[in-house]
Design brief:
Structural class: alpha/beta
CATH architecture: Alpha-Beta Barrel
Radius of gyration: 18 Å
Number of strands: 10
Mean pLDDT: 97
Strand content: 5-15%
Helix content: 40-55%
Order of helices and strands: EEEHEHEHEHEHHEHEHEHHHH
Number of domains: 1
Distance between the termini: 34 Å
Length: 290
């Protein structure tokens, strides 16, 4: 399986502090009917780091069952402890998933050697495909292209979600890794620029709301219909940028509630609901979409 196109980093809806499975099912139905390649539950957009382990596993099982034979499912995964990550991974191994999206350990800022050893240990404890996740703004440390290249030699490490915001780094990774290795954008507003230097698609926040549009942009670019791709990019650029006006997933949860795809935009502390000022920005932009 080659990972390409648009994968939606889905939110985890909550109601009164509990997972709102009714809203989650509605969101998944919306995604399944769309052109997206797949979904990514329990990533940073899905608030995976603040879910209790039983909640986390329950969401993964629910999404895997709902999307079975319909969409690819990539589980958001990983902590800043290699052993804790492996302990959870052994439970994930029993769930029918297409891959795991494994984040660079955060807070403790490992060296490049530490990253290699961490991901080697992860790879040795699963038969599932692994997509690396580099997001220095959240982890405090950047995984450099040479490290990605070394990890790409491991059979079940098949791609990376690259969210450094550095196009030179994207080019370096693509030059150093096998052609079969999938680099996916981790920044919605940079998807098209990244595809222009070799990215194969995006793991998207915006596609929670506009799945067909983001998918079509990727498909058009891949098919050589560049003008159509950049028309979509520019049409939704301002909306996409405003989905990050506060910490993700605060704005996108509000947008999903406004679109009546989920019932509430409740979040887990320490995240709180969107400010009135920023809610109005989303309201104004969404009037052009729905």
């Amino acid at each position: 399986m080659e990972f390409k196109g648009c994968y939606t980093a889905i939110v985890t809806p909550f109601k009164n502090g509990k997972i709102d499975f009714k809203s989650l099912e509605k969101l998944l139905d919306y995604q399944i009917k769309s052109k997206v390649s797949g979904v990514v539950p329990c990533g940073s957009t899905g608030e995976g780091s603040v879910l209790k382990e039983d909640e986390y596993l329950e969401v993964l099982k629910f999404v895997a069952e709902k999307c079975k034979n319909k969409k690819t499912v990539i589980a958001g995964f990983g902590t800043n402890s290699t052993q804790k990550s492996i302990d959870t991974l052994l439970k994930i191994n029993r769930i029918k998933l297409d891959a795991v999206l494994a984040i660079v350990p955060y807070y403790n800022k490992p060296t490049q050697k530490g990253m290699v050893e961490h991901f080697k240990a992860i790879a040795e404890n699963t038969d599932k495909k692994i997509i690396l996740y580099n997001i220095p703004s959240r982890t405090g440390v950047n995984m450099v292209p040479q490290t990605v290249s070394e990890l790409a030699k491991i059979k079940n490490i098949v791609g990376i979600k690259e969210a450094s915001g550095n196009l030179d780094q994207v080019s370096e990774i693509i030059n150093l890794c096998p052609k079969s290795f999938s680099l996916l954008s981790g920044d919605d507003s940079l998807t098209l620029p990244m595809m222009s230097v070799g990215a194969k698609g995006v793991i998207s926040v915006a596609s929670n709301i506009i799945p067909n549009e983001i998918s079509l942009m990727c498909d058009y670019f891949t098919a050589g219909k560049i003008k159509k791709a950049y028309e979509i990019h520019h049409k939704y650029f301002k909306f996409i940028k405003n989905l990050f006006v506060e910490t993700n997933p605060i704005p996108v949860k509000y947008a999903l509630k406004k679109a009546r795809i989920i019932e509430d935009d409740e979040l887990k502390l320490p995240l709180t609901k969107i400010s009135a000022e920023n809610a109005k920005k989303i309201d104004d932009l969404m009037s052009d979409i729905f």
